[in-house]
Amino acid sequence: MRIYGVTGWKNAGKTGLMERLVAEITRRGFTISTLKHAHHAVDVDQPGRDSYRHREAGARQVLLASQNRWALMTELRGAEEPSLQTLLDQMAPVDLILVEGYKREPHPKIEAWRAAAANPLIAPGDPTIRAVATDTPLDLDRPQFPLDDTAAIADFILKETGLCP
Description:
Layout: E1 2-7, H1 14-27, E2 32-36, H2 50-57, E3 61-65, E4 70-74, H3 84-89, E5 96-100, E6 109-113, E7 129-134, E8 144-146, H4 150-160
Parallel strand pairs: 1-5, 1-6, 2-5, 6-7, 7-8
Antiparallel strand pairs: 3-4
Helix pairs in contact: 1-4
């Protein structure tokens, strides 16, 4: 499986770009999965639900299944956060996995950057950032795309991953 990242600081437009890229690349006939890193405690379950109660009682894993989807929740219970590779190994085969976050990992990435967020660019010090999607032209040594030019960004990623010539 090929992986490509979308990274950047908070309020840079990462999630919106991910959403548009998933829609654009699947529209072109490719299968896509996503993996998102959260720096804060996150819970996809809801207090009071049976699955939540199972986890609270001490279950290490809870698999919740319905006719439309299933979700496997794993409680770390004090264990170290799994590596990106460990998580990728859990994913079903697809053409491309888009990874949001994991800015310090060695996979290729595009950085989302907005001037109004007033965060420093990551790209100048990180060769794994292959391009920048921005709302402002920048003086950089790598490709730049308008943040909302989803088709061009998708073309770049598909070419970089070898999915399209």
